[in-house]
Amino acid sequence: MCTSFVINKGKTLVGWNLDILDMIHRVRATDDGVYIEIYDKKEGWLPLFGANSRGDFVGMPTCHPYDERSNPKADAPISMMLDIDLLLQKKTFEEIKSIAESSMVYSIPGVTFMSALSNAKGNVLHIIPGQGYKYYEKPEFVVLTNFSPFKGESEKHPWMGVDRYRTAEEMLSKATETFNVRDCFDILKACSQIVCPTVVSMVFDATERKVYWCENRQWDRIEMKEFSG
Q1: How far is residue 226 from each of residues 83, 143, 159, 200, measured CA to CA in Å?
Q2: pLDDT tens per residue, range 45-54
């Protein structure tokens, strides 16, 4: 259960709520990026979400309900690996877009991990494993929660997040050119979860290359990292 949005007004701003249950996480800030990492017993700490100094942002909402078409195929690209490569600057946004355009992208077995990607120009790429992709060239705003944009509300699931989608969309539709980081956090607060708790809320000012975040819905304890250059 996660919420992701990008808005292009006076600035390019990205908002991200990470909602997870029974997983160990940490936020690691470096000069190259601010990474939200998940601990895996086999792989160790995996940088799966966050922003980098180049201006890219990576979110990875789980698609509910799960779609078996996202199960991996031999030698086909996997969304999680593409996300990590973008976040760690091993691939560019344009390279990931080209991969999504030229071949179907899949997920890991049994879980449909979507990709909510953006770059410093405010362009957005949503990859829905096993279904396709949607590219938005500097949209006014775009939102992704936990349902497939290809399916909409045609399939119901308690965690699909249509309510969060509508909340974010309504608030973003009222944004003016002065829309700022604080306004982003207001949306993330309105879309935050308790049952499947929001453990990290992050805002990336891609224009100024500044990352802001708080953990466990502690809205008065926001940290910040600014990338140089």
Answers
A1: 22, 25, 34, 18
A2: 999 999 999 9
The letter for the amino acid at 111 is V
CA 203, distance to chain mean position in Å, is 11
Q: Which one, of 104, 169, 182, 96, lies nearest residue 139 by Cα?
A: 169
| Tokens found for residue 86 | 């973008």
Amino acid present at 135: Y
Whether pLDDT at 103 is above 70 = yes
Q: Is the pLDDT confidence value at 229 over 70?
A: no
Does the pTM of the predicted model rise above 0.85?
yes
- The one-letter code for the residue type at 174 is K
128-187 pLDDT, tens per residue?
A: 999 999 999 999 999 999 999 999 888 877 777 899 999 999 999 999 999 999 999 999
